[in-house]
Amino acid sequence: MTHSTAHDSHHHAHDWAQLLRGRGLRATAQRMAVLEFLHDHPHSDAETVFQAIRPALPTVSLQAVHLIVQDLSGKGLIRRISLPDSASARYETRIEDNHHHIQCIHCGRIEDVDCVVGHAPCLEPDDTHGMRIIEASIVFRGICQDCDALINQQAKEKP
Amino acid sequence: MTHSTAHDSHHHAHDWAQLLRGRGLRATAQRMAVLEFLHDHPHSDAETVFQAIRPALPTVSLQAVHLIVQDLSGKGLIRRISLPDSASARYETRIEDNHHHIQCIHCGRIEDVDCVVGHAPCLEPDDTHGMRIIEASIVFRGICQDCDALINQQAKEKP
DNA sequence: TATTTATATTGAACTACTAAAAACAACTGC
DNA sequence: GCAGTTGTTTTTAGTAGTTCAATATAAATA
Ligand SMILES: [Mn+2]
Ligand SMILES: [Mn+2]
Ligand SMILES: [Zn+2]
Ligand SMILES: [Zn+2]
Questions:
Q1: Per DSSP, which regions of chain B are E strands?
Q2: Which positions of strand D lie within 7 Å of protein CB atoms?
Q3: Which of A73, B3, B21, B45 has a CA 20 to 30 Å removed from the CA of A45?
Q4: In chain B, which residues have pLDDT < 50?
Q5: What's the rounded Cα separation, in Å, for the pair A115 and A112?
Q6: What percent of chain A has pLDDT over 70?
Q7: pTM score
Q8: E-strand stretches of A16-148
Q9: Binding residues of A for Zn(2+)
Q10: Torsion of CA A74, A84, A98, A80, to 10 degrees
């Protein structure tokens, strides 16, 4: 069996295999499928990844996805994000920078937010309580334009 | 039965009862115990609160604590905090200001951090993606002095 | 290609939390 | 103070997300 599928031509070929081996991990179809999907669909949870890669890998299990995202997070190939309110953890392949997130409290839509002023002022809190800061995770919460319009419309209809 | 117990003299009496009634909630022993404990032990999770108030209220249930923290959060009497890594939600009575948190990734210790520059610059991300920001929750993560010393010592012992 | 060993699968368990019905107790008004 | 009303708690069960342990599988290595 060769590696080329109909999918491969659609996007720049990320050499997930090489990336995995570079970290001492075996390049399995499951891991590459998870990486590929997360690259195209950042901020997905384990269940979403599982459902998405299932058609191509019929024998894959949800437990495997959990194992994989845990291993990949541990090796720094993906980042685990936990958002207030959503019970499940999200994952993304964008790990080069320390970026943050903004979420609509109405529809749950998540977007990336670059570090606040560029040079991570967020890494300099007022009082560190003697701690050496390693990172800051910021989650902005608000309402997106679509939901805002929707809410305004509903308010107009039933006042 | 009067309200005075051995505990009451130790700290300023917070009138939790009045606070609860002011929000249209009944002043039950369980709710007051939860408020009292969270006031003295901020950033506790439901299980911790449950174990702590159990001696004084032997019939209290963990489910009741979950219900209570949910109700109190809903009425704005306490704040729910979710931290990366810790599966369970934490609660605190400090709700007057929009403060943030710093956590040691080694021992889990949590401290309060005042809003970064005072006037919530955290509420002004670079790109809002069209969203109207309502709040920002920042969790700084680092290593506390104790753990730092411990880690350095271990490194010295086994090099 | 055979061997080794990491990884995936399977099935079960665990934790945080929620739901529904019944028992209880805080407020209301007498 | 006492009974009635109704909000809360208790009890019992259930769910979602995740982890664990044993076995099966397949990627790397020779
Ligand atoms: Mn992101
Ligand atoms: Mn706090
Ligand atoms: Zn929205
Ligand atoms: Zn520490």
A1: 44-45, 79-81, 90-92, 100-104, 110-113, 132-143
A2: 7-13, 16-21, 26-28
A3: B45
A4: 1-11, 117-121
A5: 10
A6: 84
A7: 0.85
A8: 44-45, 79-81, 90-92, 100-104, 110-113, 132-143
A9: 104, 107, 144, 147
A10: 20
Residue A99 approaches strand D within 7 Å at CB? no
For residue A19, count other CB atoms closer than 10 A to its CB.
18
How far does chain B reach from its first CA to its final CA, in angstroms? 64
Q: What are residue A5's phi and psi, to 5 degrees?
A: -130, 175
Q: Does B108 touch chain A (CB under 8 A)?
A: no
Put simply, whether B137 touches A (Cβ < 8 Å) is yes
Q: What mean pLDDT is predicted for residues A63-77?
A: 97
Nucleotide with the nearest C1' to B59 CA: D10
Chain B CB within 8 Å of residue A76 CB = no
Computed over every residue of chain A, the mean pLDDT equals 85
Who wins on pLDDT, A44 or B99? A44
Pairing of strands B90-92, B79-81: antiparallel
Q: Where are the domains of chain B?
A: 1-96, 97-159
- In B 23-42, which Cβ lie closer than 7 Å to strand D? 24-26, 28, 30-31
CATH architecture of B1-96: Orthogonal Bundle (1.10)
CB contact under 8 A, A137 and B139: yes
User: Which residues, other chains included, contact B38 with Cβ-Cβ below 8 Å and sequence gap of 6+?
Assistant: B44, B49, B78, B91, B92, B93
Class of the domain covering B97-159 = alpha beta
Q: How high is the pLDDT of residue B125? A: 65
DSSP string covering A17-35: HHHHHHTT----HHHHHHH
CB A78 within 8 A of CB A124: no
pLDDT tens profile A100-148: 888 998 888 899 887 654 444 455 666 788 888 888 787 888 899 999 9
Written as six digits, the tokens of A91 are 């994952």
